[in-house]
Amino acid sequence: MRGEFQQYMAARRQQVEAALDRYTAGLDAPSRLVEAMRYSLLAGGKRLRPILTIAASELFGLEAADVMPGACALEMIHTYSLIHDDLPCMDDDDLRRGRPTCHKVYGEAMAVLAGDALLTQAFALMAEQAAVPRVGPARAVRAAAELAHAAGAEGMVGGQVEDLAWEGRQADEPQLRRIHSLKTGALFRAAVRMGGILAGAGEEDLDRLGRYATHFGLAFQIWDDVLDVTGDAALTGKGVGRDARLDKSTYVTLHGVEGARERAYQAVRLALEELEPFGGAGWVLRALAESVVDRVA
Amino acid sequence: MRGEFQQYMAARRQQVEAALDRYTAGLDAPSRLVEAMRYSLLAGGKRLRPILTIAASELFGLEAADVMPGACALEMIHTYSLIHDDLPCMDDDDLRRGRPTCHKVYGEAMAVLAGDALLTQAFALMAEQAAVPRVGPARAVRAAAELAHAAGAEGMVGGQVEDLAWEGRQADEPQLRRIHSLKTGALFRAAVRMGGILAGAGEEDLDRLGRYATHFGLAFQIWDDVLDVTGDAALTGKGVGRDARLDKSTYVTLHGVEGARERAYQAVRLALEELEPFGGAGWVLRALAESVVDRVA
């Protein structure tokens, strides 16, 4: 099963990378802008969000190609958020995925604009998604609404605002959970739910996918906090101990490494429970959730 | 006619302001973020882009309420672009519409995020646009594609990149025209064409509306350059002579004030020609084009 999952991930990652390349290579735009967009977009990464969309859509009979525009829209939004979060006026990070951040290479103005362009391009892809015959405009519109709400003021952007507001102060567990539910959880929820929406899943299944994604996102975030303390900078591609230096609350400062790990495992268990009604067909989403607390980067 | 037009504009502006207020007042998001978004969004302004969308849609039998989400999406994108363009790493402006710019009031991080949130919210509105019975998902998707392409790397964002690249160097007329066609023209074209698309106009009429908007945008930009030299800072809300200090090419540096004025009038004449087939029904778009070279701010 493990080998099968790794093959699945490698294949989907390759499809996503090829599509991201295709969706940006032909842009009729200033070459330095396109270069900056692609520098960050094609910098590797696990492509978790697009693969979650694909895997969820496969549960309801679609194939990767049917949801590729929406899947890549998610990755563009994730990438733009990293570019803007790394800016000197925000988290002021020099390294991302082991390479200099976008503004370090292209300058601040270009980094702001490359982020803006990726965010905008994501919604151009959502419009393309409507042209896929097995999807159609009505489902594409609903998925676009889901994405916009998850990515905007009521979701990811709002989460980043709250995160900045808590810097240097100690958030408690409910506050920390709320910040992460918005900053990283909302996009995971949108990723999984969009797969279902594009495939025409029923409301009950969409609710189930949403709860799965909420637990998934929580496990992911807790594990990130653990890796910040225990991780290998060469693997994570960012400085270890960064959260502590920023005097930020994390699941590790609240519960210790072992307590945080236990909470991550518990979140994965809750995620897996939501998949039970899908039976064997849910094996990819199951393996994805398990892989979150298995990773070293 | 002039009185009738002014009444029309005042009524539409009021409808747009009320909708912008409604679309942002209830956001479930950090209050300071919503405040920063609304500070820039509700700062007055002519609301030209949304009114162009409304006027174009009225030509084909729709009413303002039918296209209000799309019209307000345009204004949100226009506003986000002003917030980001004003940032220290871009044009570094302290004043906009006679008030301190967003980052001067809320700080740079919040200004970046307020812009991101407005851009994202614009596409949430495009999804809402699909729910309007007289529009429907297929037309809303096409309008959203038009908006995304006009606003992104191939349009407005690309234009800002080119504009920054030419700072301190003297662009010639074709280069200047290209910059402005992207930086401001693309969104005007999208505004007018979206009105037609949402109302189900035929391809020939959409092409005509696109050409009208191209001439409109050119006249608008030339007149801005004229106002930068001859304008009253108290009315324009920004420093006079700013372009010259930045050593930027403008239509005035290329052709002098009188030569620039003559080119603006010529662009308006070309815009009006495109409206001839619409007869009397085109009166609002006609008056809008004429008003561009009549304004003092």
TrEMBL record, chains A, B:
Task: List, separated by semicolons, the cofactors it needs.
Answer: Mg(2+)
Keyword Metal-binding applies: yes
Pfam families named among the record's database cross-references: polyprenyl_synt (PF00348)
**Keywords of this entry:** Isoprene biosynthesis, Magnesium, Metal-binding, Transferase
Instruction: Please provide, alphabetically and separated by semicolons, the GO molecular function terms listed in this UniProt record.
Output: (2E,6E)-farnesyl diphosphate synthase activity; metal ion binding
GO CC entries: cytoplasm
UniProt feature coiled coil, ranges: none
What are its E.C. numbers?
A: 2.5.1.10
Query: Catalytic activity annotated for this protein?
Result: isopentenyl diphosphate + (2E)-geranyl diphosphate = (2E,6E)-farnesyl diphosphate + diphosphate
State any GO BP term from the record: terpenoid biosynthetic process
Q: Which family does it belong to?
A: Belongs to the FPP/GGPP synthase family.
Entry's PANTHER family? FARNESYL DIPHOSPHATE SYNTHASE
Question: What's the name of the protein?
Answer: Farnesyl diphosphate synthase
Q: What is the lineage of its organism?
A: Bacteria, Bacillati, Bacillota, Clostridia, Eubacteriales
